Amino acid sequence: MGFIQLGKAHQEKLIPCLVAYATGTLLAAAFLGMIPTAIIRSGYNLNLVLPMILIGLMFFFILEKLIIWRHCHQVECEVTESAAGPIIIFGDAFHNLVDGIVIAAAFLIDFTIGIAVSLSVIVHEIPQEVGDLGILIDKNYSKKKAFIYNSLSGSTTIPAAIISYFILDEISLVIPYVLAISAASFLYIALSDLTPELHRKLGAKYSIRQLILIVAGIFTMVLILALKDLI
């Protein structure tokens, strides 16, 4: 709520920074944490992991094409007037459910990787949730109703994480598959969703700031993942 109360002007300045930082954390978490771990857990079977990443990318592309999963980081979102509200609520609930599974799988592998993945999820969720709330209000939902619906759709992460933690622990053979598909979701979000948002701002000042924040996101993940060698 504190972020929402900052006001629209401050949000418009802060959200692009969060989007750039989230891009770095998602890419680093996927390439430096999840994919290498999936390869190791699969017995270095690249013929298993890489096709699963490709399948995951296609899966998320199809979902977005069907308008089941919709990310939006601004109030003006390209969805039809009548469908916008339900699409945002259902899509966000599904998205957060997947995030819960991703977090659970990461913690089952390694506590440090779990922390890194959780941070990546949190950072990219902030601009998405604020954007979704803005869309609901823009579509004539009251602020109270928009906040309640948005909160309910976001609440699927915790039960999904808890259930997945115990289920995946029992069937550990599927964890490399889950990690590969999870990495695909991070890559898809970063490259298909967040990166186009960054290109909306032109000019050397914006480009340099975005690059610094992306590198900061990557460096944050590197530091977190390096902790497992020290613990």
Provide structural commentary:
- This protein has one domain (19-229).
- Helix content is 78%, strand content 0%.
- The protein has helices spanning 8-41, 46-65, 84-109, 111-138, 143-154, 157-170, 175-198, 204-226.
- Helix 1 runs antiparallel to helix 7, helix 3 runs parallel beside helix 6 and helix 3 (84-109) packs across helix 7.
- 45% of the residues are buried.
Secondary-structure topology with pairs:
Elements: H1 8-41, H2 46-65, H3 84-109, H4 111-138, H5 143-154, H6 157-170, H7 175-198, H8 204-226
Helix pairs in contact: 1-4, 1-7, 1-8, 2-7, 3-4, 3-5, 3-6, 3-7, 4-5, 4-8
| Low-confidence segments | none
In DSSP terms (H or I, runs of 4 or more residues), the helix count works out at 8
Characterize the overall form.
globular
The count of DSSP E runs of length 2 or more, i.e. the number of strands, is 0
The count of domains is 1
Helix content: over 70%
Rounded to an integer in angstroms, the radius of gyration calculated over CA atoms is 18 Å
Q: What is the average per-residue confidence, as pLDDT, rounded to a whole number?
A: 82
One letter per element, helices H and strands E, the order comes to HHHHHHHH
Distance between the termini: 35 Å
Strand content: under 5%
The description of the largest β-sheet is: none
Query: What class, by secondary structure content?
Result: mainly alpha
